[in-house]
Amino acid sequence: MKVFKFGGASVKDAAGVKNVASVLQKTGEKDLLVVVSAMGKMTNQLEKVVDAYLSETQSAAESIQEFKEYHNCILNDLFPNSSHPVFNEVGKRYQSLSNFLEHNNSKNRPFVYDQIVGYGELVSTQIVSAYLSEVHIENTLLDVRSCIETDSNYRDAKVDWEATQEHISAKVSAKGITITQGFLGAEGANNFTTTLGREGSDYTAAIFAYCLNAESVTIWKDVPGVLNADPRYFSKTTLLNKISYREAIELAFYGASVIHPKTLQPLQRKEIPLFVKSFVNPLDPGTCVGKGVTLDPMVSCFILKKNQVLISLSSLDFNFMMEHHIGDVFKWLHTYKMKVELIQNSAISFSVCVDNKYDNLAPLLAKLRSAFKVSWNENVTLYTIRHADSKQIKAILKDKTLLLKQESRGTVQLVVKE
Ligand code: ASP
Ligand code: MG
Hints:
Elements: E1 2-6, H1 14-27, E2 32-36, H2 42-55, H3 60-78, H4 85-103, H5 109-117, H6 119-134, E3 140-142, E4 149-150, H7 161-171, E5 177-181, E6 184-187, E7 193-195, H8 201-212, E8 216-221, E9 242-244, H9 245-253, H10 261-269, E10 274-278, E11 287-290, E12 295-296, E13 301-315, H11 323-335, E14 339-345, E15 349-355, H12 361-369, E16 372-386, H13 390-397, E17 401-408, E18 411-417
Parallel strand pairs: 1-2, 1-8, 2-5, 3-5, 4-6, 8-10, 9-11
Antiparallel strand pairs: 6-7, 9-12, 10-11, 13-15, 13-16, 14-15, 16-18, 17-18
Helix pairs in contact: 1-6, 2-3, 2-5, 3-4, 4-6, 8-10, 9-10
Bound molecules: aspartic acid (ASP) and magnesium ion.
Residues 7-8, 37-38, 43, 120, 182-183, 198-201 line the site of aspartic acid.
Protein backbone atom coordinates (compact mmCIF):
# COMPACT_ATOMS: atom_id res chain seq x y z
CA MET A 1 0.00 0.00 0.00
CA LYS A 2 0.96 3.65 -0.36
CA VAL A 3 0.65 6.72 1.84
CA PHE A 4 -0.59 10.06 0.47
CA LYS A 5 -0.51 13.38 2.27
CA PHE A 6 -2.61 16.42 1.37
CA GLY A 7 -1.59 19.64 3.13
CA GLY A 8 -3.68 22.68 4.04
CA ALA A 9 -3.13 24.41 0.69
CA SER A 10 -4.48 21.41 -1.21
CA VAL A 11 -7.79 21.47 0.71
CA LYS A 12 -8.15 25.21 1.19
CA ASP A 13 -11.53 25.39 -0.58
CA ALA A 14 -14.21 23.24 -2.18
CA ALA A 15 -12.29 23.08 -5.46
CA GLY A 16 -9.30 21.73 -3.51
CA VAL A 17 -11.39 18.96 -1.94
CA LYS A 18 -12.82 18.07 -5.34
CA ASN A 19 -9.29 17.95 -6.67
CA VAL A 20 -8.30 15.44 -3.96
CA ALA A 21 -10.95 13.13 -5.38
CA SER A 22 -9.62 13.76 -8.86
CA VAL A 23 -6.03 12.96 -7.77
CA LEU A 24 -7.23 9.67 -6.29
CA GLN A 25 -9.13 8.86 -9.46
CA LYS A 26 -6.28 9.78 -11.78
CA THR A 27 -3.61 7.89 -9.86
CA GLY A 28 -6.00 4.97 -9.52
CA GLU A 29 -4.48 3.71 -6.26
CA LYS A 30 -6.80 1.33 -4.45
CA ASP A 31 -4.89 0.63 -1.22
CA LEU A 32 -4.06 3.92 0.43
CA LEU A 33 -3.64 5.62 3.74
CA VAL A 34 -4.43 9.29 3.16
CA VAL A 35 -3.23 11.90 5.66
CA VAL A 36 -5.04 15.25 5.54
CA SER A 37 -4.14 18.57 7.24
CA ALA A 38 -6.42 21.33 8.44
CA MET A 39 -7.97 23.32 5.59
CA GLY A 40 -6.11 26.42 4.41
CA LYS A 41 -4.96 28.50 7.35
CA MET A 42 -7.38 27.00 9.86
CA THR A 43 -4.61 25.98 12.28
CA ASN A 44 -3.69 29.67 12.56
CA GLN A 45 -7.36 30.50 13.06
CA LEU A 46 -7.54 28.01 15.94
CA GLU A 47 -4.40 29.54 17.43
CA LYS A 48 -6.41 32.75 17.60
CA VAL A 49 -9.11 30.87 19.49
CA VAL A 50 -6.48 29.67 21.97
CA ASP A 51 -5.13 33.20 22.45
CA ALA A 52 -8.56 34.69 22.93
CA TYR A 53 -9.64 31.93 25.31
CA LEU A 54 -6.54 32.14 27.52
CA SER A 55 -6.29 35.90 27.54
CA GLU A 56 -9.94 36.22 28.59
CA THR A 57 -9.96 39.71 27.09
CA GLN A 58 -11.28 38.95 23.63
CA SER A 59 -14.09 36.69 22.75
CA ALA A 60 -13.07 33.20 21.68
CA ALA A 61 -16.60 32.76 20.33
CA GLU A 62 -15.90 35.22 17.52
CA SER A 63 -12.81 33.34 16.36
CA ILE A 64 -14.73 30.06 16.55
CA GLN A 65 -17.46 31.60 14.44
CA GLU A 66 -14.93 32.40 11.70
CA PHE A 67 -13.65 28.83 11.89
CA LYS A 68 -17.18 27.51 11.44
CA GLU A 69 -18.07 29.88 8.62
CA TYR A 70 -14.97 28.91 6.66
CA HIS A 71 -15.92 25.25 6.79
CA ASN A 72 -19.64 25.86 6.30
CA CYS A 73 -18.90 27.69 3.10
CA ILE A 74 -16.90 24.69 1.80
CA LEU A 75 -19.61 22.29 3.00
CA ASN A 76 -22.37 24.22 1.23
CA ASP A 77 -20.41 24.12 -1.98
CA LEU A 78 -19.60 20.40 -1.76
CA PHE A 79 -22.99 19.21 -0.51
CA PRO A 80 -25.88 21.10 -2.12
CA ASN A 81 -28.31 18.91 -0.22
CA SER A 82 -28.39 20.52 3.22
CA SER A 83 -29.80 17.41 4.87
CA HIS A 84 -26.65 15.44 4.07
CA PRO A 85 -25.44 13.70 7.27
CA VAL A 86 -22.03 15.40 7.05
CA PHE A 87 -23.59 18.64 8.36
CA ASN A 88 -24.63 16.89 11.50
CA GLU A 89 -21.23 15.19 11.95
CA VAL A 90 -19.27 18.41 11.48
CA GLY A 91 -21.78 20.16 13.75
CA LYS A 92 -20.95 17.66 16.49
CA ARG A 93 -17.27 18.56 16.14
CA TYR A 94 -18.08 22.28 16.50
CA GLN A 95 -20.15 21.45 19.55
CA SER A 96 -17.41 19.42 21.18
CA LEU A 97 -14.93 22.27 20.62
CA SER A 98 -17.33 24.67 22.35
CA ASN A 99 -17.88 22.17 25.14
CA PHE A 100 -14.17 21.95 25.75
CA LEU A 101 -13.91 25.73 26.14
CA GLU A 102 -16.87 25.76 28.47
CA HIS A 103 -15.78 22.95 30.78
CA ASN A 104 -12.01 23.14 30.71
CA ASN A 105 -10.33 24.35 33.92
CA SER A 106 -6.72 24.01 32.85
CA LYS A 107 -4.61 27.11 32.31
CA ASN A 108 -1.76 25.01 30.97
CA ARG A 109 -1.24 26.67 27.59
CA PRO A 110 0.36 23.78 25.66
CA PHE A 111 -2.38 21.41 26.85
CA VAL A 112 -5.19 23.82 25.98
CA TYR A 113 -3.53 24.56 22.63
CA ASP A 114 -3.51 20.92 21.55
CA GLN A 115 -7.10 20.30 22.62
CA ILE A 116 -8.24 23.26 20.53
CA VAL A 117 -6.05 23.24 17.38
CA GLY A 118 -6.71 19.56 16.75
CA TYR A 119 -10.19 20.49 15.53
CA GLY A 120 -8.72 21.78 12.26
CA GLU A 121 -7.74 18.26 11.21
CA LEU A 122 -10.77 16.61 12.82
CA VAL A 123 -13.14 18.77 10.76
CA SER A 124 -11.14 18.65 7.51
CA THR A 125 -10.96 14.84 7.45
CA GLN A 126 -14.67 14.58 8.18
CA ILE A 127 -15.42 16.75 5.16
CA VAL A 128 -12.91 15.09 2.83
CA SER A 129 -14.05 11.59 3.77
CA ALA A 130 -17.73 12.45 3.29
CA TYR A 131 -17.05 14.09 -0.06
CA LEU A 132 -15.07 11.11 -1.35
CA SER A 133 -17.96 8.82 -0.37
CA GLU A 134 -20.31 11.17 -2.18
CA VAL A 135 -18.35 10.72 -5.42
CA HIS A 136 -18.19 6.96 -4.87
CA ILE A 137 -14.64 6.70 -3.62
CA GLU A 138 -15.21 4.26 -0.83
CA ASN A 139 -13.18 5.06 2.25
CA THR A 140 -12.91 4.63 6.00
CA LEU A 141 -12.36 7.58 8.32
CA LEU A 142 -9.85 6.70 11.01
CA ASP A 143 -9.27 8.77 14.16
CA VAL A 144 -5.49 9.09 14.21
CA ARG A 145 -5.61 9.44 17.99
CA SER A 146 -6.37 5.75 18.26
CA CYS A 147 -3.11 5.02 16.37
CA ILE A 148 -0.38 7.52 17.12
CA GLU A 149 0.46 7.34 20.81
CA THR A 150 2.73 10.00 22.25
CA ASP A 151 4.09 11.34 25.51
CA SER A 152 2.34 14.32 27.09
CA ASN A 153 4.78 16.93 25.83
CA TYR A 154 1.98 19.02 24.35
CA ARG A 155 2.70 20.99 21.15
CA ASP A 156 5.76 18.88 20.39
CA ALA A 157 4.80 15.38 21.46
CA LYS A 158 7.21 12.48 21.04
CA VAL A 159 5.92 9.34 19.41
CA ASP A 160 5.88 6.09 21.39
CA TRP A 161 6.92 3.94 18.45
CA GLU A 162 6.26 0.59 20.05
CA ALA A 163 2.69 1.41 21.11
CA THR A 164 2.03 3.18 17.81
CA GLN A 165 3.23 0.20 15.80
CA GLU A 166 0.90 -2.04 17.79
CA HIS A 167 -2.14 0.22 17.28
CA ILE A 168 -1.48 0.67 13.58
CA SER A 169 -1.01 -3.05 13.00
CA ALA A 170 -4.28 -3.74 14.83
CA LYS A 171 -6.39 -0.92 13.36
CA VAL A 172 -5.29 -0.03 9.85
CA SER A 173 -6.31 -2.20 6.98
CA ALA A 174 -3.78 -2.60 4.19
CA LYS A 175 -6.71 -2.84 1.79
CA GLY A 176 -8.92 -0.03 0.60
CA ILE A 177 -8.68 3.69 1.29
CA THR A 178 -8.30 5.06 4.82
CA ILE A 179 -8.53 8.78 5.57
CA THR A 180 -6.90 10.14 8.71
CA GLN A 181 -5.69 13.33 10.40
CA GLY A 182 -2.16 14.65 10.15
CA PHE A 183 -0.39 16.48 12.99
CA LEU A 184 -2.33 14.82 15.86
CA GLY A 185 -1.68 12.06 18.35
CA ALA A 186 -2.95 11.10 21.78
CA GLU A 187 -1.03 10.70 25.00
CA GLY A 188 -1.15 7.24 26.49
CA ALA A 189 -2.46 7.83 30.02
CA ASN A 190 -5.71 9.78 29.47
CA ASN A 191 -6.06 9.86 25.71
CA PHE A 192 -5.86 13.65 25.52
CA THR A 193 -5.09 15.04 22.07
CA THR A 194 -1.45 15.96 21.43
CA THR A 195 0.23 17.56 18.41
CA LEU A 196 3.52 16.74 16.74
CA GLY A 197 4.61 20.36 16.11
CA ARG A 198 3.47 22.84 13.45
CA GLU A 199 3.63 21.46 9.92
CA GLY A 200 3.65 17.99 11.46
CA SER A 201 1.44 16.26 8.90
CA ASP A 202 4.34 15.15 6.71
CA TYR A 203 5.73 13.43 9.76
CA THR A 204 2.38 11.70 10.34
CA ALA A 205 2.60 10.30 6.82
CA ALA A 206 6.11 9.01 7.53
CA ILE A 207 5.01 7.37 10.79
CA PHE A 208 2.23 5.46 9.02
CA ALA A 209 4.50 4.51 6.13
CA TYR A 210 7.07 3.14 8.56
CA CYS A 211 4.58 1.13 10.61
CA LEU A 212 2.75 -0.18 7.53
CA ASN A 213 5.92 -0.94 5.55
CA ALA A 214 4.39 1.18 2.81
CA GLU A 215 5.68 1.10 -0.72
CA SER A 216 6.06 4.90 -0.85
CA VAL A 217 4.85 8.23 0.53
CA THR A 218 3.58 11.00 -1.74
CA ILE A 219 3.23 14.58 -0.55
CA TRP A 220 0.88 16.51 -2.86
CA LYS A 221 1.80 20.17 -3.32
CA ASP A 222 1.02 23.25 -5.37
CA VAL A 223 4.52 23.10 -6.89
CA PRO A 224 5.80 20.51 -9.38
CA GLY A 225 8.25 19.04 -6.84
CA VAL A 226 11.45 20.12 -5.12
CA LEU A 227 13.33 22.86 -6.97
CA ASN A 228 17.04 23.65 -6.75
CA ALA A 229 16.30 27.24 -5.67
CA ASP A 230 13.46 29.34 -4.36
CA PRO A 231 11.65 30.85 -7.39
CA ARG A 232 10.88 33.98 -5.34
CA TYR A 233 14.58 34.88 -5.46
CA PHE A 234 15.98 33.06 -8.49
CA SER A 235 14.67 33.58 -12.00
CA LYS A 236 15.88 30.23 -13.30
CA THR A 237 15.09 27.10 -11.33
CA THR A 238 15.40 23.41 -12.07
CA LEU A 239 13.12 20.65 -10.88
CA LEU A 240 15.07 17.95 -9.06
CA ASN A 241 14.01 14.51 -10.29
CA LYS A 242 15.81 12.66 -7.58
CA ILE A 243 17.50 13.53 -4.27
CA SER A 244 19.15 11.16 -1.81
CA TYR A 245 17.88 11.15 1.78
CA ARG A 246 21.26 12.46 2.84
CA GLU A 247 21.20 15.38 0.40
CA ALA A 248 17.62 16.24 1.39
CA ILE A 249 18.67 16.34 5.04
CA GLU A 250 21.65 18.57 4.15
CA LEU A 251 19.40 20.95 2.20
CA ALA A 252 16.89 21.11 5.04
CA PHE A 253 19.69 21.78 7.51
CA TYR A 254 20.78 24.85 5.56
CA GLY A 255 17.22 26.12 5.45
CA ALA A 256 15.74 24.89 2.20
CA SER A 257 12.05 24.27 2.62
CA VAL A 258 12.35 20.70 1.41
CA ILE A 259 11.25 17.91 3.67
CA HIS A 260 11.88 18.13 7.39
CA PRO A 261 14.59 15.69 8.63
CA LYS A 262 12.13 14.38 11.22
CA THR A 263 9.96 13.18 8.33
CA LEU A 264 12.87 11.67 6.43
CA GLN A 265 14.40 9.68 9.27
CA PRO A 266 11.76 6.93 9.61
CA LEU A 267 11.55 6.65 5.81
CA GLN A 268 15.28 6.39 5.42
CA ARG A 269 15.45 3.63 8.03
CA LYS A 270 13.19 1.44 5.91
CA GLU A 271 14.30 2.90 2.59
CA ILE A 272 10.76 3.97 1.73
CA PRO A 273 10.86 6.51 -1.13
CA LEU A 274 9.17 9.86 -0.69
CA PHE A 275 7.62 11.63 -3.67
CA VAL A 276 6.79 15.32 -3.84
CA LYS A 277 4.26 15.87 -6.60
CA SER A 278 1.93 18.50 -8.00
CA PHE A 279 -1.73 18.12 -7.12
CA VAL A 280 -2.44 20.08 -10.29
CA ASN A 281 -0.62 17.61 -12.56
CA PRO A 282 -0.77 14.42 -10.51
CA LEU A 283 0.58 12.18 -13.25
CA ASP A 284 3.82 14.15 -13.58
CA PRO A 285 6.75 12.38 -11.92
CA GLY A 286 7.65 15.18 -9.45
CA THR A 287 10.63 14.63 -7.16
CA CYS A 288 11.67 11.37 -5.54
CA VAL A 289 13.68 11.43 -2.30
CA GLY A 290 15.24 8.04 -1.80
CA LYS A 291 18.27 5.84 -1.69
CA GLY A 292 21.05 6.26 -4.22
CA VAL A 293 22.14 9.18 -6.38
CA THR A 294 22.81 12.43 -4.56
CA LEU A 295 21.05 14.62 -7.09
CA ASP A 296 19.53 14.11 -10.49
CA PRO A 297 20.12 16.27 -12.43
CA MET A 298 23.41 17.13 -10.77
CA VAL A 299 22.89 20.88 -10.38
CA SER A 300 23.84 23.37 -7.72
CA CYS A 301 21.24 24.07 -5.05
CA PHE A 302 20.80 27.56 -3.68
CA ILE A 303 19.44 28.52 -0.29
CA LEU A 304 19.03 32.14 0.61
CA LYS A 305 18.35 33.67 4.00
CA LYS A 306 17.66 37.36 4.37
CA ASN A 307 17.71 39.65 7.38
CA GLN A 308 20.77 38.07 8.99
CA VAL A 309 23.26 39.74 11.29
CA LEU A 310 26.96 39.07 11.08
CA ILE A 311 28.65 39.63 14.43
CA SER A 312 32.42 39.48 14.92
CA LEU A 313 33.97 39.32 18.35
CA SER A 314 37.50 39.59 19.59
CA SER A 315 38.76 39.64 23.12
CA LEU A 316 39.35 43.02 24.71
CA ASP A 317 42.96 42.15 25.54
CA PHE A 318 43.92 40.50 22.23
CA ASN A 319 43.89 37.10 23.85
CA PHE A 320 42.86 34.05 21.91
CA MET A 321 39.15 33.32 21.70
CA MET A 322 38.96 30.21 23.84
CA GLU A 323 36.24 27.73 24.75
CA HIS A 324 35.04 29.58 27.83
CA HIS A 325 34.55 32.79 25.84
CA ILE A 326 32.75 30.99 23.09
CA GLY A 327 30.64 29.18 25.65
CA ASP A 328 29.41 32.55 26.98
CA VAL A 329 28.63 33.72 23.46
CA PHE A 330 26.44 30.71 22.80
CA LYS A 331 24.67 31.09 26.12
CA TRP A 332 23.69 34.67 25.23
CA LEU A 333 22.71 33.79 21.69
CA HIS A 334 20.42 31.20 23.18
CA THR A 335 19.00 33.65 25.73
CA TYR A 336 18.12 36.11 22.97
CA LYS A 337 16.77 33.40 20.65
CA MET A 338 19.25 34.14 17.89
CA LYS A 339 19.47 31.15 15.60
CA VAL A 340 23.08 30.51 14.62
CA GLU A 341 23.44 29.91 10.89
CA LEU A 342 27.21 29.97 10.50
CA ILE A 343 30.31 30.15 12.69
CA GLN A 344 33.86 31.08 11.83
CA ASN A 345 36.71 31.09 14.28
CA SER A 346 40.24 32.41 13.99
CA ALA A 347 42.97 32.99 16.56
CA ILE A 348 41.68 36.28 17.87
CA SER A 349 38.23 36.63 16.41
CA PHE A 350 35.00 34.72 16.34
CA SER A 351 32.22 35.44 13.85
CA VAL A 352 28.62 34.26 13.83
CA CYS A 353 25.89 34.83 11.34
CA VAL A 354 22.55 34.81 13.13
CA ASP A 355 18.92 35.06 12.22
CA ASN A 356 17.47 38.12 13.94
CA LYS A 357 13.94 36.78 13.98
CA TYR A 358 12.82 38.21 17.30
CA ASP A 359 14.43 41.64 17.02
CA ASN A 360 16.73 41.08 19.99
CA LEU A 361 19.87 42.54 18.52
CA ALA A 362 20.22 45.58 20.82
CA PRO A 363 20.16 43.67 24.13
CA LEU A 364 22.42 40.97 22.71
CA LEU A 365 25.00 43.52 21.53
CA ALA A 366 24.92 45.21 24.94
CA LYS A 367 25.70 41.90 26.58
CA LEU A 368 28.47 41.06 24.11
CA ARG A 369 30.06 44.50 24.45
CA SER A 370 30.51 43.94 28.15
CA ALA A 371 32.97 41.14 27.37
CA PHE A 372 34.33 41.61 23.83
CA LYS A 373 35.27 44.00 21.15
CA VAL A 374 32.28 43.78 18.84
CA SER A 375 31.66 44.69 15.23
CA TRP A 376 28.54 43.80 13.31
CA ASN A 377 26.62 44.18 10.05
CA GLU A 378 22.86 44.19 10.03
CA ASN A 379 20.57 43.17 7.21
CA VAL A 380 23.00 40.89 5.45
CA THR A 381 22.08 37.88 3.32
CA LEU A 382 23.40 34.37 3.72
CA TYR A 383 23.70 32.25 0.59
CA THR A 384 24.33 28.55 0.94
CA ILE A 385 25.23 26.77 -2.26
CA ARG A 386 25.51 23.02 -2.47
CA HIS A 387 27.69 21.63 -5.27
CA ALA A 388 28.60 25.10 -6.50
CA ASP A 389 30.98 25.99 -9.26
CA SER A 390 33.13 29.11 -9.24
CA LYS A 391 31.20 30.75 -12.08
CA GLN A 392 27.97 30.65 -10.12
CA ILE A 393 29.62 32.06 -7.04
CA LYS A 394 31.00 34.90 -9.11
CA ALA A 395 27.53 35.56 -10.51
CA ILE A 396 26.04 35.76 -7.03
CA LEU A 397 28.73 38.11 -5.81
CA LYS A 398 28.26 40.52 -8.69
CA ASP A 399 27.16 43.92 -7.32
CA LYS A 400 27.39 42.67 -3.75
CA THR A 401 29.92 43.05 -0.98
CA LEU A 402 31.30 39.80 0.34
CA LEU A 403 31.70 39.90 4.11
CA LEU A 404 32.54 36.30 4.82
CA LYS A 405 33.02 33.11 2.87
CA GLN A 406 33.17 29.59 4.18
CA GLU A 407 33.80 26.50 2.16
CA SER A 408 33.48 22.89 3.16
CA ARG A 409 33.03 19.70 1.21
CA GLY A 410 30.10 20.24 -1.11
CA THR A 411 28.96 23.48 0.51
CA VAL A 412 29.88 27.13 0.05
CA GLN A 413 28.41 29.80 2.30
CA LEU A 414 28.57 33.49 1.56
CA VAL A 415 27.55 36.32 3.82
CA VAL A 416 26.94 39.36 1.63
CA LYS A 417 25.62 42.88 1.77
CA GLU A 418 23.25 43.39 -1.17
N1 ASP B 1 -2.28 21.89 10.25
C1 ASP B 1 -0.98 21.82 10.87
C2 ASP B 1 -0.23 23.11 10.64
O1 ASP B 1 -0.69 23.94 9.87
C3 ASP B 1 -0.19 20.64 10.44
C4 ASP B 1 0.24 20.64 8.99
O2 ASP B 1 -0.35 21.32 8.18
O3 ASP B 1 1.18 19.93 8.66
O4 ASP B 1 0.78 23.32 11.25
MG1 MG C 1 -1.22 23.36 7.64
